[in-house]
Amino acid sequence: MQSIEYSKSGNVVYHIDSDKRTVTAKIRCSPNDAQDLFDSQLNKHIFGTGLAVVGDQWTFDYCADRVAINKEYVGKAKCHSDDEFDIDFGKKLALIRAKEKYLAAMEKKLATIRDWIYGLTKRTDKIYYDQYRKLIENRIELFRTQKVV
User: Fold this and answer.
1) Three-class SS of residue 128?
2) Other Cβ atoms within 10 Å of 141 Cβ, number
3) Residues 6+ apart with CB under 8 A from 20
4) Secondary structure class of 22 (helix, strand, coil)
5) Model pTM?
6) Coil, strand or helix: which one is 1?
């Protein structure tokens, strides 16, 4: 028997197939998640400090396709024939696997933004370079250590 369930937020869809003993979690997200996260952190930590910025405008429009992520990430949990099929455990495991893929994509795209910032700031001022480097490294470390359950 197959069924579909949605998370409270609606961002996760679970496909449950008790005949095949599988649970699939599909995370729906915005292709602009990496850019949006970086922009929000930049506004909070840099623009709010009164520091001068490099260039006229901090937008990533020119490279939006390079920092866009997929709209969906899928994780699958399959129960071994010797084990008892537990839908809740399968949902948690499938969600963890989907989030691992999502976070890996976010980390990769944040690294792309970091490299772009490095290029800009290396050409200007060493002080700004160090501040932006710390900011980006902190963001990447957040994704590495974030709990996925």
Assistant:
1) helix
2) 11
3) 78
4) strand
5) 0.66
6) coil
Beta carbons of 124 and 54 less than 8 angstroms apart: yes
Tokens coding 131 = 């501040």
In the chain the beta strands, taken as DSSP E runs, fall at 2-6, 12-17, 22-28, 72-78
**C-beta separation of 18 from 8 below 8 A:** no
- Give me the phi and psi of 62, to 5 degrees please: -65, -25
Q: Give which of 6, 56, 60, 51 is closest to 33, Cα–Cα.
A: 60
Q: Note the helical H segments in 1-149.
A: 33-45, 64-67, 87-122, 126-145
CA neighbor of 36 nearest in space, from 9, 56, 59, 13: 59
- What tokens were used for 52? 């001068």
Confidence of residue 52 (pLDDT cuts 50, 70, 90): very low
Determine the pLDDT at residue 89. 94
Which pLDDT score is estimated for 122?
62
Q: 22-28 and 2-6: which strand pairing? A: unpaired
Cα dihedral sign, 15-96-137-46: positive
